[in-house]
Write a structure and sequence with these properties.
There is one protein chain. The protein is an alpha+beta fold and 586 residues long. It has 2 domains: 117 residues, no CATH class; 341 residues, Cytochrome p450, CATH 1.10.630.10. The protein contains 21 helices and 14 strands. The strands form 5 sheets. Strands 1-2-8-5-3 form a 5-stranded mixed sheet, with helices on both faces. A 3-stranded antiparallel sheet has the order 4-14-11. A hairpin with a 3-residue loop joins strand 12 and strand 13. Helix 15 crosses helix 19. The relative contact order is 0.15.
């Protein structure tokens, strides 16, 4: 028998259905809310009542201050804990955030069976660099990829090959700033683009042996100009005409900037980045040009090696690509196969080295210029150390520079301390990460397998006084390591003070002590920064030569400030310089 609803009962049925759907909606909403990890890791209680977790407050902070990560130390202090959960991706497990230098060092160097490479970092990079070792778990394949470029970090290669390129390319930046200083007539000017362009030129030349000519083109343009229109007020910055970038420069810069795509994606970041690289015209053309340039460099390097009678010789090495080709040839011979010099793995290892070095070093140099401009006493002491160490160049007079051999080999403890403090306070990498490969405990708290763990470089113990930690929850640490990595505890932890890295030797001389406290810019252990030696040497060359040729004068408050923006790296929002050219006299 058919049943039909009469008019009086229809509204009741519809109301009941709506109530049922509303109830199901509420249930689904609750199920979709962020779920804390089991255990006692502190977290923001407000975040678990919002589908987006901590994201709204992070974006509100960024809108106010420019960066995102600055909120995390504040949150740790509110929770009074060096460890917390952060709900950053909808429908995903929370991240564990730690600001405890000793625990970060222990995880990175000793607890290698419990933690490995970060899946999050691999997601960000594998769209652009699918064959790079950074996306691989530690193991034989990861080691094989690293062997292709391991020799690029040897002291012999860095000091005898790469140092020459650092020197010559930095001279181009110096010439550019001579021209800008001539035209500025006492005004400050933005250094941001110049530093990034110079860092890209330096790294591309050192990696592939060719040039993008970004700095050269700008120098040639400014040499032809007698004067520029300047603001009436000395408080305002000078502005310059800009020479067109070469296609090579634009292609590399486009691809580096494209890493902001996966950074902004809450879901499938590597897939979305891969699609963008393939289908967005500006990016796909950049990929094609980049691949063509790298293959051309590899072919030239193969020809150089083929002209050698001994595949183990080093006499033909002119750049990093030569090492990769030589290593692939040696590995192929040992394994009884034909070498493949232009494989995707080799191309990605080379381009990965370029991207990592270019982005991080340029940002760190920008922070360095800002710190040295603000802290005039540091700049004065550093220049005095340079004049003492390179006394023959001072005595030689007009235009004489410290040379390629003495810059990397001279004992310069205050310079080393300054560079170390720039890394600590600049925080180019605000956080480093690992992934738990098994259920484990951190600072006494349970951390499930596959949880992403982040170590802050801008938090307590690093650039703020540390938070109290119950040591009973730590894994056993050697006493010396625990003492060294306990973190900066004084109220001056945030101050830029290179003296914290100096100590007296038996004769009363200042010596550089990199173990005076924590500085985690490069990470530690087998997954630490591969290019650390490269970055340190490049920083040394650029700072020595810039401070030898220019005095960084104070700049107007409107052009100063230390606000940052979190892009691919933790970049300063402003980086201006006002220069006085220095002439060495007898």
């Amino acid at each position: 028998m058919a049943i039909s609803l009469s008019l009086p009962t229809a509204p009741i049925a519809i109301t009941a259905l709506l109530l049922l759907l509303l109830g199901l909606g509420r249930i689904l909403y609750r199920l979709a809310l962020p779920k804390p990890l089991p255990g006692s890791i502190p977290y923001n209680k407000k975040a678990v009542t919002n589908l987006l977790g901590d994201v709204p407050e992070l974006f509100e902070y960024r809108a106010k201050y420019g960066d995102i990560f600055g909120l995390l130390p504040q949150r740790l202090r509110e929770l009074n804990s060096p460890i917390m959960q952060l709900f950053i991706r909808p429908f995903a497990r929370p991240w564990v955030v730690i600001s405890d230098p000793a625990e970060a060092y222990d995880i990175s160097t000793r607890r290698l069976k419990e933690f490995d490479r970060s899946y999050y970092l691999a997601e960000l990079l594998c769209g652009l660099l699918p064959g790079h070792h950074i996306s691989l778990m530690t193991g034989p394949e990861w080691s094989a990829h690293r062997r292709l470029v391991n020799d690029t970090m040897s002291s012999h290669f860095l000091h005898n090959v790469i140092a020459k390129l650092f020197f010559s390319e930095t001279q181009e930046l110096i010439e550019l700033w001579r021209q800008k200083t001539r035209l500025a007539q006492g005004h400050a000017f933005s250094a941001l683009h110049d530093i990034y362009a110079a860092a890209l030129e330096i790294t591309w030349t050192a990696t592939f042996g060719s040039k993008t000519d970004a700095i050269t083109a700008q120098v040639e343009l400014l040499k032809k100009i007698k004067k520029i229109d300047l603001p009436a007020s000395k408080e305002a910055a000078a502005d310059y005409p800009h020479a067109p970038n070469s296609p090579a420069f634009d292609a590399i810069a486009n691809l580096a900037n494209s890493l902001e795509i996966p950074l902004a994606m809450p879901f499938q970041p590597s897939l979305i980045h891969s699609l963008a690289l393939r289908f967005l015209p500006s990016l796909s053309s950049s990929v094609k040009l980049k691949d063509q340039m790298i293959r051309n460099s590899l072919n030239v390097a193969s020809e150089r090696l083929a002209s050698q009678t001994d595949i183990n010789t080093t006499s033909h090495l002119t750049c990093v690509v030569d090492i990769a080709v030589q290593r692939e040839t040696q590995m192929a011979k040992k394994e009884g196969r034909t070498p493949v010099h232009d494989s995707r793995v080799i191309q990605d290892e080379l381009f990965g080295l370029l991207i990592a070095s270019y982005e991080t070093t340029s940002t760190t140099l920008c922070w360095g210029l800002k710190f040295l401009t603000k802290h005039q006493a540091v700049q004065t002491r550093l220049r005095a150390e340079l004049h003492t160490a390179f006394a023959p160049a001072v005595a030689a007079g007009l235009g004489t520079q410290p040379d390629i051999v003495t810059i990397p080999t001279s004992d310069l403890p205050y310079l080393d301390a300054v560079i170390h403090e720039i890394h600590r306070c600049g925080m180019t990498s605000v956080a480093l990460s690992r992934r738990a490969t098994q259920d484990t405990y951190v600072l006494g708290h349970f951390v499930p397998k596959d949880t992403e763990v982040f170590f802050l470089n801008n938090g307590p113990g690093m650039v703020q006084p540390g938070l109290a930690t119950d040591d009973s929850g730590r894994s056993p640490l050697p006493r010396e390591t625990k003492e060294r990595m306990k973190g900066w505890t004084g109220e001056d932890a945030a101050d830029f003070d290179p003296r914290r890295w100096l100590k007296k030797d038996a004769s009363g001389r200042d010596v550089f002590d990199p173990l005076a406290g924590p500085m985690n810019a490069f990470g530690a252990g087998p997954r630490g920064c591969f290019g650390r030696k490269w970055a340190q040497l490049e920083m040394r060359f650029v700072l020595v030569l810039l401070l030898w040729n220019f005095e960084l004068l104070p700049i107007p408050d409107a052009l100063s400030g230390f606000a940052a923006v979190d892009k691919i790296t933790h970049q300063p929002q402003k980086c201006y310089v006002r220069l006085k050219e220095l002439v060495q006299s007898t």
